[in-house]
């Protein structure tokens, strides 16, 4: 069995050795929650990597958004090149959930645009978790949504060994039962059979698995390149995972469809009894169509709404999620916990109110309410041991952690950036001159605004003034966001303007100036936590400065300045005592999309 082994020219330094030792000690004692309070740029990810290497447990890392999850995936892949490091986020580029607005009698159909690349990475993640112990999955909060039963998924996974007695017809039947479709053109989740040769492309890898049969025995298993068909490797055995996450053996499907039919009949009677004839007709028509589709092809649009039946759960039972695929003995790391924990807590309620409306108006059966994210209490119950990671831990972390481990000293000797307060009245004019100075040194600038429109307009204004700039906000597609950040680091443009995405965790050592527009507008985007997090974006460069554009010093601004000054004092004293000269962090630029997925 492969073990976690860090590959790095660096050794733990600064506060890292002490933090690693304390966290490992806490895990060995059985502490459920510990918090790593690490300033930006102190190497929290490297600390966590060292903890993983010491405890040797499969690890689920949860990040607050897709961009940070991608960055963490790149970092962990660099530390663990010989282990499985996977990326698991929502595969929707566009998602309009199914909804009903009763006030206008408007039904909005679910409309989605699925990103095929991310779907592949999700399948790669579940395959790795079920087939090896040396696995780290970096996920967004979408990992608390229902995924289908891991037991059923594992049960219908096909293991083939060289020398096994297996006919061509048996393998084809198995693949169809695993939701693979037969096709002459090979794509993910498809197979083709020519003579006694079967070629399969699993959903998590773009590699052909070729099975050759001779006299009803498997004579050869090889992996081949999708384009050239060249042989990549010869295998003794291979695991073929299902083409979908919601799976159900054919022999059980008919019983499940009968249960759905019974619920539908009960619901129709309920609506008729209450004089809601339109709703009765609607739920009957929609459910019958879905049942017919599942009976014929084993699938229907919106099949997740029947997940209670497909996962063989009772009403109200918590859904299966990615977390369940890890089993009992794993480590959870909650990155930027001050943001991620409240996100997890809020998911259930937003989902519930929308679904109740659909159920009450005959668009969905009541069992659809069990197609949901985890409630916060359920999420907590699924945690064996967790490390909460944040530069600004909130009340939850402080109240629930057995231990809060501080990591203030950076291995590079870098101190927190210098803070400069200037008037907001002339912020646009002032920043123009600053950008030119920074760009001349081939360094980058981050600017954070209060609205998306302001970010877009500012980026456009800079372009009109011959400054290479881009904007970044939540309307930008996931993979485009990642590419934009990579392009900033590569120097394809000098200024990145954003709203809330330019806060937690973004690792951009080329950035030497952060400008916070309207820093005195008290609120969510200019709270103490937000300000400290944004200030941290300049903490990876030796020339790091932050300009706070403000005409008043708010309470949040005052506390953020005071905390930054406290950290600078500790860091400066440490550097002086140990004769350390601060160095800008040097970090290789890699792309998550181009990375070859680890085979399973």
Q: In words, what does this structure look like?
A:
The two termini are about 10 Å apart. The protein is an alpha/beta fold. Helices cover about 40% and strands about 20% of the residues. Residues about 595-600 have low confidence and may be disordered. Helix 1 (about 15-30) packs across helix 2 and helix 3 crosses helix 16 (about 480-490). A hairpin with a 5-residue loop joins strand 12 and strand 13 (about 205-215). The chain folds into four domains: about 15-145 and about 315-405, Rossmann fold (3-Layer(aba) Sandwich); about 160-240, Penicillin-binding protein 1b domain (Penicillin-binding protein 1b fold), CATH 3.30.2060.10; about 250-285; about 420-580, 3-Layer(aba) Sandwich (Rossmann fold). The radius of gyration is 27 Å and the shape is globular. Strands 3-8-2-17-18-1-19 form a seven-stranded parallel sheet, sandwiched between helices. Strands 10-11-12-13-14-15 form a six-stranded mixed sheet, covered by helices on one side. Strands 20-25-24-21-23-22 form a six-stranded parallel sheet, sandwiched between helices.
Fill in the keyword field for this structure.
600 residues; alpha/beta; Rossmann fold; Penicillin-binding protein 1b fold; 7-stranded parallel sheet; 39% helix; disordered C terminus
